[in-house]
Amino acid sequence: MSRMTYAEAARTALAEAMRADPRVWCVGEDLGRGGVFGQYKGLREEFGPDRVSDAPISEAGIMGAAFGAAMVGTRPVVEMRFADFALCATDELVNQVAKARFMFGGQSRAPMVIRKPMGMWRSSAAQHSQSLESWYAHIPGLVVAVPSTPQDNYTMMHAALAADDPVVYMEHKNIWALEGDVDVGEPYDWGTARRRHAGDDLTLVCWSDTANVAERAAATLAAEGIGADVLDLRTLWPWDRDGVLDSVARTGRLLVAHESVGAGGFGGEVVATVCQHAFDALRAPPRRLAAPRSLIPYAPNLEDRLRVTEDMIVAAAREMCA
Q1: Directed axis angle between helix 310-321 and helix 209-223, to 10°?
Q2: What was the pLDDT predicted at 288?
Q3: Summary mean pLDDT of the chain
Q4: Contact residues for 116 (Cβ-Cβ < 8 A; gap 6+)
Q5: Where are the domains of the chain?
Q6: In whole angstroms, how far apart are CA 233 and each of 25, 206, 241, 315?
Q7: Of residues 128, 158, 172, 197, which has the active-site annotation?
């Protein structure tokens, strides 16, 4: 067991994989100086510029070059700096990377980890703050990972690096410095949620940094006698459908919370699935907490109006359990 930050955990997993497998390499902007958030710090010094490669400012070029390298046998880690900037490479990712295995009949694959730092980071404004995870959950051929803790950022990074399919790996920018214990021997299976808090009164489904907010809310609710079963999905595709349905069958209530915009958000998929397969178990209408369909402002007071907070989760849970 080691104490690490969220950023250190992923960096440690990446370094271990690079030592073990010479096919693993990294490409992106600013990697030579350790990455925008220090998530590659020290890797250039250990592995050299051929395996920690600085690229020109061309997200489409980065993604396309890495895709070609993956097709001929390497395992690239593609750093997009911000999830917002990665939209410049959407054609390569959605129309080429995601479809390669299918269109070549399994003869060729694209084992890539595409890192897309996501989420609101104080006063980063509309072009640097988006949470776009639901976009990629919609695309067949992509695995979508949204780790929320140092433990998961270590374990899931190892799993992503070992996967033979492209993994869109979305780390929340606001928690790079979050510290936690990391068990390097903990196993991970794709599509399994982590129960962050146990309870029998309400199922609370979340992911990314909202899972940390939900865990704090669950502690407040527990002090009031309301038991929230907090499920951190960890991946949006595949997602732990059975785990959510089992929890709702026991609690009879569903609250989904996420930072991304509610309209078209993945929370709607969770609610629809529960209504379709566990409707008879529900004792109250399912609810969603999410951002409004609004651009993210620079001003902190306006930015805070878009956040899903601990107080919002507590209030919604109280109303549902009343």
Answers
A1: 50
A2: 98
A3: 97
A4: 80, 82, 83, 86, 132, 168, 169, 170, 171
A5: 2-182, 194-321
A6: 28, 6, 9, 22
A7: 128
CATH of domain 2-182: 3.40.50.970
* Structure tokens that stand for 229 in this block: 């079963």
pLDDT of residue 15: 98
* CA dist., res. 236 & res. 239, Å (int): 5
Tell me, which fold does domain 194-321 have in CATH? Rossmann fold (3.40.50)
Average pLDDT over residues 146-161: 98
2-182 and 194-321: identical CATH topology? yes
Buried b (16+ CB within 10 A) or exposed e, 184-204: eeeebebbebbebbebebbbb
14-68 confidence digits (pLDDT tens): 999 999 999 999 999 999 999 999 999 999 999 999 999 999 999 999 999 999 9
Active site residue 128: yes
In whole angstroms, give the CA distance from residue 218 to residue 231. 11
| Strand 235-237 with 143-145, pairing | antiparallel
Phi/psi for 204 (5° steps) reads -115, 110
What is the residue whose two structure tokens read 């070992």?
162
pLDDT at 298: 94
d(CA 80, CA 6): 18
Q: Provide mean pLDDT across the span 122-136.
A: 94
